[in-house]
Amino acid sequence: TSSTSCSESNLNNCHLSSISVNSPYLNLETFIHHRRCRRTRTVFSDAQLMGLEKRFETQKYLSTPDRIELAGTLNLSQLQIKTWYQNRRMKWKKQALQQCKQAPTKPKGRPKKNSIPSYAEIKRLENEVAVEQQAKQALEDSSCISRTNSFLISDIQLNNEDNAH
């Protein structure tokens, strides 16, 4: 986990640990009070990265409720999720530029309330599309079967007429 201020346990990882002899701060604690330590770099687990990447595939921007939900699911802070998403979008845009595509951009201005679909809404829409595709396929299959049946019936009728003559 990350720390927002220096502590003795975090002092070895801190950029403030090396104070020059000529420093006006003779006491390390006084120096720490005047300047805060940088956060240590978050190292995400493989499972957390997979969860983040999977969600990013379907949602390039997270609403606050989605960010809260994802943070709870992956056991990360909202700030960590927000920062990861910002960095990942920049990587995504750079990749698009390298492929000579137009850079994907966020719509201008503040989004209207509920204009960004939630993860649940995206999943619901995906399920609706899947159900529609299954229904369409079933209709095509039944249409094909009925056409096959009508061909078979007409063949039987023709055979019966031939046998009758």
Describe it for me?
It comes from Didymodactylos carnosus. One of its GO terms (molecular function) is DNA binding. The protein has 5 helices and no strands. By secondary structure, the protein is an all-alpha fold. Among the domains are: 57 residues, Orthogonal Bundle (Arc Repressor Mutant, subunit A); 37 residues.
**Rg over alpha carbons:** 31 Å
- % residues in beta strands: under 5%
Say how many strands there are: 0
What is the arithmetic mean of pLDDT?
75
CATH architecture of one domain: Orthogonal Bundle
Query: Which runs of at least 5 residues are low in confidence (pLDDT < 50)?
Result: 1-5, 8-13
Identify the CATH class of one domain. Mainly Alpha
Summary tags:
mainly alpha, Arc Repressor Mutant, subunit A, rod-shaped
Describe the structure concisely.
The chain has 165 residues and is mostly helical.
Write the layout of secondary structure elements.
Blueprint: H1 28-34, H2 46-58, H3 64-74, H4 78-98, H5 119-164
DNA-binding region: 37-96
GO molecular function, one term: DNA binding
Protein name: Homeobox domain-containing protein
